[in-house]
Amino acid sequence: MDLSLSTRTEGGRTVVEVGGEIDVYTAPKLREQLVELVNDGSYHLIVDMEGVDFLDSTGLGVLVGGLKRVRAHEGSLRLVCTQERILKIFRITGLTKVFPIHTSVEEAVNATD
Amino acid sequence: MDLSLSTRTEGGRTVVEVGGEIDVYTAPKLREQLVELVNDGSYHLIVDMEGVDFLDSTGLGVLVGGLKRVRAHEGSLRLVCTQERILKIFRITGLTKVFPIHTSVEEAVNATD
Amino acid sequence: MAIVELRFTALPEHVRTARLVAAAVARRAGVAESVLDEVRLAVGEACSRAVGLTRQVGADEPVTVTLDDGDGRFSIEVRDAVPQPAVVGAGESGGSVGLPGPSGANGMSLDVAESELGLAVILGLVDELDVRAGADGGSIRMSWPSEKGKIGDDPLGL
Amino acid sequence: MAIVELRFTALPEHVRTARLVAAAVARRAGVAESVLDEVRLAVGEACSRAVGLTRQVGADEPVTVTLDDGDGRFSIEVRDAVPQPAVVGAGESGGSVGLPGPSGANGMSLDVAESELGLAVILGLVDELDVRAGADGGSIRMSWPSEKGKIGDDPLGL
Ligand SMILES: Nc1ncnc2c1ncn2[C@@H]1O[C@H](COP(=O)(O)OP(=O)(O)O)[C@@H](O)[C@H]1O
Ligand SMILES: Nc1ncnc2c1ncn2[C@@H]1O[C@H](COP(=O)(O)OP(=O)(O)O)[C@@H](O)[C@H]1O
């Protein structure tokens, strides 16, 4: 299954809704999307992973890369994820300590920490 | 996907409803079922293929074997199949001329040719 | 020219794996959706035949499936390691090798039908076909048009 | 002892084929449904890594995945042909090889995370693990409990 991406603005943040598989084959598309958003001046990103079926380390790497980019502009990158098998991958790589992970887009939009 | 088999009697014929994939891996199960029916004295068989997703030559071979067995008892083996991609396999092997193929179980039960 | 090769112990269960792989790789190579069913069926037949031959002689050798999407065609070669002293003969592209087909099927004996149904299915499905038998084993080579480049391009840019 | 081997040109698209094959063969070998996700992810990571290494050095050699369901365990070995002069070192079963894990992750720099995330995922998922690097290439060997015999039996009786 392929990657699907859709972008919208909500409460001053940019929400990227991701669906399908983020893997070594499709991660470059997600990377392009994030780079483009930052280049266009969107520094507060929310990546909604609720529709993601599969995530590998290449996908993690792209998210980490996105985080670095927004941080360079004092921005933020928040994740929305409640799927246990996806959360597990963030946990075993220690990335739950790097990304703020929320249970809904609403929660992420309102977060101020 | 695996093979599913269910058997019932209708109008003096035995209807074998087959679902899933009939291939080199599962065909032996279908063969066993047909052999058992003939051994138990059911010589007028209707094989309902409407639920079949995949059929290969091993499956064809099992059907041909069943036909031989019932013929040895003056019986019959009729098929029910309207799926074009399954019919195609009977056609390219010339087996449409060997098996009576019907568009419904009802038609097959009432057939007297 | 991307190549995938699958090699497996001659067991019926692995024929399913071969079908799965062939269909997935063919799809990515740009083979039309309408043809994928044919690819799946043809590679299954070729592998079932190779597995059957290998087991008949009690050999240990694996069956090998090579998938290649070069030059606008998607091709599959299925090889077994069973010496076949010209049992089958070499068929040229689309050529008839004396097997039951729609034409000669009318008075066909059921015995003929059962023994070489697999090859009959392949002959009926595949236009570009090459069947070989030799002292070092047999091979069936088939190919279909593909749209290489459309999907197979590398998006990673490593 | 049934073996399936997949060999492919080092391209990201084929990593998907490897995941597909590994999950299908693992299921048939009797690996628990709950573990299949792990198998799929781990084999994908190992293959992504092998593909990345091969492409970094511009090599042509294929990546090889061997699946084996002997002795009540389902094992996968992923091999590349890139000479690695002990870059990675050999990790013993479940051993830590100085990679970011849950424990040492607190003050972890993002650079470390990115470079070896793949191995970190594998280390986090797989208990039985052996990572080797040598002059003739690297290999990652992983295994899981299976119920061989329950499903893998031959129903054909050829
Ligand atoms: N083109 C492909 N080639 C090989 N494997 C694939 C492909 N697409 C998806 N997969 C794998 O097969 C599994 C099921 O995919 P599926 O949802 O059927 O996608 P698709 O409909 O595109 O084939 C997934 O785990 C995925 O990793
Ligand atoms: N255990 C299996 N191993 C390999 N291929 C399989 C297996 N089961 C089914 N397939 C193939 O994969 C395709 C999709 O099967 P699917 O409906 O997902 O079955 P399952 O849910 O049992 O895996 C089918 O075309 C079939 O040939």
From TrEMBL, chains A, B:
Gene this protein is translated from: bldG
SUPFAM superfamilies according to UniProt: SpoIIaa-like
Lineage: Bacteria, Bacillati, Actinomycetota, Actinomycetes, Kitasatosporales
Family, per entry: Belongs to the anti-sigma-factor antagonist family.
Protein name per Swiss-Prot or TrEMBL: Anti-sigma factor antagonist
Domain STAS, chain residue ranges per copy: 3-112
InterPro entries named in the record: Anti-sigma_ant, STAS_dom, STAS_dom_sf
CDD domains (alphabetical): STAS_anti-anti-sigma_factors
Pfam families: STAS
Signal peptide (UniProt feature, chain positions): none
Automatic annotation (TrEMBL), chains C, D:
One Pfam family per UniProt: HATPase_c_2
Keyword Nucleotide-binding: yes
Domain of life: Bacteria
N-terminal signal peptide: none
EC code(s) of this entry: 2.7.13.3
Region (Disordered): 136-158
Keyword set includes Transferase: yes
Coiled coil: none
Top EC class of this enzyme: transferase
Protein name per Swiss-Prot or TrEMBL: ATP-binding protein
UniProt source species: Streptodolium elevatio
